[in-house]
Amino acid sequence: MAKNAENQRRRELxxxxxxxxxxRENRVRQLREVADEYLADYRLRFRGVTFAEYAIGHVVRxxxxxxxxxxxxxxxxxxxxxxxxxxxxxxxINEEVRFLLTLMGESGDVIRVRLRKKKKLxxxxxxxxxxxxxxEETRRMGEISGQSRSPxxxxxxxxxxNAGMRDSEIKxxxxxxxxxxxxxxxxxxxxxxxxxxxxxxINSVLRQAILEHREQYEKRFKTxxxxxxxxxxxxxxxxxxxxxxxxxxxxxxxxxxxxxxxxRWHDHRHTLITQLAESGAGEETIRQIVGHVSxxxxxxYLHIRMKAKREALEGIVVQPDTKKEE
Length: 326
Hints:
- By secondary structure, the chain is mainly alpha-helical.
- It has two domains: 11-117, Orthogonal Bundle (DNA polymerase, domain 1), CATH 1.10.150; 135-311, Intergrase catalytic core (hpI Integrase, Chain A, Orthogonal Bundle), CATH 1.10.443.10.
- The protein contains 16 helices and five strands.
- The chain has helices at residues 2-18, 20-27, 31-45, 50-63, 73-85, 90-103, 106-117, 135-147, 153-163, 167-171, 204-221, 249-258, 267-278, 283-290, 295-301, 306-314; strands at 178-179, 184-186, 199-201, 232-233, 240-244.
- The chain has a three-stranded antiparallel β-sheet with strand order 1-2-3.
- Helix 5 runs antiparallel to helix 6 (90-103).
């Protein structure tokens, strides 16, 4: 009896030391519950939570009712396939899987190692990031956006092309972030830490677009408040300035079609970065404007056009010495 009691006590001490009971309890919880707790803590620790909410939202949508103990390698591979069928980008799926395995804790670490050994942890992502629109294309898009029925698309397009702001940064922009008197706007929440808190000068084109938008805004809502969103919620017309518009996809699709242009909304950022680089702006200046962290990421966005390359080389043409040595 004494030996049995001693062995029982040893097991209790071992379980307490290794936190075995807690681990078991965690593994029989639903993924949805764990995700809610993770995001609540994430919001306290980080300012930019938009992408985390987006990625974990897709994970919870498909796997939220599953217990952690029931999620294995097969589940992860099936999730990748399901998201590919939804035409999600491989890069986005890889980030979603990263969050999923993080939520799972130690069991997620085990799955990560096994999938990595099988070379199935990450889907092959496109190396080519996007394109830069040609000047004629941006001119046509500008003209079409000015004729659009959408009250948002013209200013939104101007912000993308002249400030390099992301879609989420544009939609959540408030009047309090616009400082026309001092000639700049500020970005508060962003997808990346480098993007948060950055200030962007307002050039003459953007300034004019803001003034025209504000004039129509005041006609609609009688006044303007700092906390109100520049792109207010409401269909078919804006009606609630305390909430921001959820999407610009329909208006952007119509502008792109009518302007006979192919490309993505995000390519406006590529276009601005390319134009800044071609104009001679330094890498640090570009990073301060668009909010990128590393030179490697910035280089992925550069699309120096052939015309600029040709002009650069023509400017330094050196004729070889044709004289023969005596």
